[in-house]
Amino acid sequence: MRIPSHSRRSSSIDSETMTPMIDVVFLLLVFFVCASIGQTPDRLLAAALAAGTVEQKSDPVQPPADMWDHQQVRIRLTLENGAGQNAAILVNEQRVTGLDDLRSRLARLAEADAESPIILDIDDNVQVQQFITIYDLCQSLKFQSISFATRSGGKQSP
């Protein structure tokens, strides 16, 4: 049995159907280019704005002179030579004897001003559990701003 063969017609039929569409697209392009020439852009047009006045009916609110300035507290954890696994704790560059001493200092500060920003400066070699304990302590004392200090370029901050 013979399989019917479909001979493909010449590709001239396909190109004949595309020619009118290409002509229309080209004509539209020429039309829009010609139509846009000679128009002044809106941003260059002069605008007649109404002259108005602004009157201030009250003085701006000035903050009270005795506004409390919140003291920044920097807690630094660092491993010193021969310190073993326990990190040395420094509060504003003053050494703290231990976690209980830190807790009492922070509790007094929280009573006086819980809005003081706390900055935790942790050395890279300090164990995670040690600074998480201090972070949890600051949260339990209801400090409102607890941040971690970062170092740029791998340099140690003074």
Shape descriptor = flat
Share in β-strands: 5-15%
**From N to C, what is the helix and strand string?**
HEEEHEHE
Poorly predicted residue ranges: none
User: Helicity level, as a percent range?
Assistant: 25-40%
Measured distance between first and last alpha carbons: 94 Å
- On the 0 to 100 scale, the average pLDDT is 76
Major beta sheet, specifics? 5 strands, mixed
| CATH class identity of the domain at 73-148 | Alpha Beta
How many H/I helical runs?
A: 3
Strands of the widest sheet, in order across it, are 3-2-1-4-5
- Helix/strand/pairing class, anyone? alpha/beta
CATH fold type of the domain at 73-148 = Nucleotidyltransferase, domain 5
Strand element count = 5
Second-tier CATH architecture of the domain at 73-148: 2-Layer Sandwich
Radius of gyration: 37 Å
Features:
single chain, alpha/beta, five-stranded mixed beta sheet, 3 helices
Structural commentary:
This protein is of the alpha/beta class and 158 residues long. The chain has a domain at 73-148: Nucleotidyltransferase, domain 5. It has helices spanning 12-36, 99-112, 128-140; strands at 73-78, 88-91, 94-96, 118-122, 146-148. A 5-stranded mixed β-sheet has the order 3-2-1-4-5. The mean pLDDT is 76.
